[in-house]
Amino acid sequence: MTTYRIALIPGDGIGVPVVDAAWTVLERAASRHGFQLSATRFPWSCDFYRETGAMMPADGIETLRGFDAILLGAVGWPAAVPDAVSLHGLLLPIRKAFRQYANIRPHQLLPGVEGPLRKEGFDILCIRENTEGEYSGAGGRVHVGTPDEVAVETAVFTRVGVERILRFGFEQARARRGKLASVTKSNAQKHTMVFWDEMTTVIAAEYPDVEVTPYHIDAMAARMVMAPDTLDVVVASNLFGDILTDLGAAIQGGLGFAASANINPDRTAPSMFEPVHGSAPDIAHLGIANPIATIWSGAMMLEHLGEREAGAAVMRAVEAATAKGIGTRPGQDRTDTIANAVLQALG
Ligand code: GGG
């Protein structure tokens, strides 16, 4: 029987209960579909930082390299560790080291979920560049604490990085409804974003069957709310993709329903699966975190591992649970109630 080795990094706050809940569902799916999942749990988090001075050990990346995939919960506990330190100490280095350059975020409606922005038929796939752009970490501060203080954050867009994420976006569009929206702010950002637009035109020549439309980020935000049915695949830089996918989550009904996959398309290192939401310190100890985004991310992991039918079964079980109204409104059901409803539907 095939056994997949999965690294679990629950992280901080609600990351812990949602990963635990998702794991029960994924194990059940494995047993029903004739394969095994073997978990190794890593306590890398802001608590770990407080104990050791780092978000993960110096050999953390090498340790993770031996796994088939990584399932991560949430990173951040701002009361103890500045968010920029926790993000740049764990999540971002993993994405970069393992060349997980494509962050895939599906936005589809689950039955029974309501929300003020919900639009029937909302079904888009956001592809976020995941290893460079505005999150490069390059920059600095001078004259700190003086009236002359200056902070510079450098957005890094390489030809390799932009080409490969655009090509990935075109491939996804080709496999779906054949439409790609390429998002920039090239009227205002005249170097990086004009470069992105130019590369979009270059790569588009390889995909004559895909209809590509450039949008500015502000227009795209409005379009996602006002006319989402005109969109199919949306490709954007690291920052713009991060922002647009929180909006996508809101249209779905909330961050509790937004799944994501950090994919290394070349399969030279493990890919990482995580809910879009963060650690939510305000509800972290209440037992009401919605595990659906993590279960959905786990379903994407199963599909990535080649267990397509198991992943589809997990998603059918999620839909069966939400169709009964379980987990459809923030704070309405407890984490274990939602996970049990999915388990029951899974059989
Ligand atoms: N579930 C992952 C998580 O904790 N996300 C928090 C966050 O701020 N992420 C930023 C990012 O995805 O780049």
TrEMBL record:
Q: Return the Gene3D superfamilies for the record.
A: Isopropylmalate Dehydrogenase
The family classification in the record reads: Belongs to the isocitrate and isopropylmalate dehydrogenases family.
The Isopropylmalate dehydrogenase-like domain extends over: 5-342
| EC number, UniProt record | 1.1.1.83, 1.1.1.93, 4.1.1.73
What role does this protein play? Has multiple catalytic activities. Apart from catalyzing the oxidation of (+)-tartrate to oxaloglycolate, also converts meso-tartrate to D-glycerate and catalyzes the oxidative decarboxylation of D-malate to pyruvate.
Record flagged with keyword Nucleotide-binding: no
* Species classification: Bacteria, Pseudomonadati, Pseudomonadota, Alphaproteobacteria, Hyphomicrobiales
Can you name this protein? D-malate dehydrogenase [decarboxylating]
User: What cofactor requirement does the entry state?
Assistant: Mn(2+); K(+); Mg(2+)
**Stretches that traverse the bilayer:** none
Species assigned in the record: Aureimonas phyllosphaerae
Q: In which pathway does it act?
A: Carbohydrate acid metabolism; tartrate degradation; 2-hydroxy-3-oxosuccinate from meso-tartrate: step 1/1; Carbohydrate acid metabolism; tartrate degradation; 2-hydroxy-3-oxosuccinate from L-tartrate: step 1/1; Carbohydrate acid metabolism; tartrate degradation; D-glycerate from L-tartrate: step 1/1
